[in-house]
Amino acid sequence: MTSLDVAFAAVGVIAAASGLLSVTTRHVVHAALWLVVSLGSLAGCYLVLGAEFVALVQVLVYVGAIVVLVLFALMLTRAPIGPNREVSTSRTHRVLAAVLGAGVTALLCAAFWPLVRDAPPVRRMETHTGALAEQLFGTWVWPFEVLSLLLLVALVAALAVSRMAGVAEEAVEEAALHGNLDKPAQDVEPA
Length: 191
Description:
flat; 6 helices; Four Helix Bundle (Hemerythrin (Met), subunit A); 0% strand; mainly alpha
């Protein structure tokens, strides 16, 4: 067992544990932060394997963009920060999900154990990113640009929706102050 094997195993355990914490925590913001740790650990796995370019893309795209978008969406939708009883499941469902997850994990471990047992030690591969960069910035540049435009439109739409909800709430509060709660919010004249 080499030091790369130990590093890969350690980073893999951190990625798996933080991924498990991401889906089992009851706090939505904590789940997003555990997702950051999990995706960052996956980038560490790529670094150990010698794929520096893929690790950098992992950090930039997933940790730097997707998780920030999730946190921004949580802030805009005013999602409850703490545990919410309305969306929590019963203890029976959680135990059943844990048993099912453990069963699938055991099945996967049994299926992949012969491959792991007879595998050669981990070694770094020589990487050439020129061909990858040519494909990425030549053939696939337009799909990436369209995707970034789509994410930008979604972000602006989320901001617009949150602003409209704030305006409607202010109109209802103003109507309640003036005793005009019977009238619709758009009929209320500003004082």
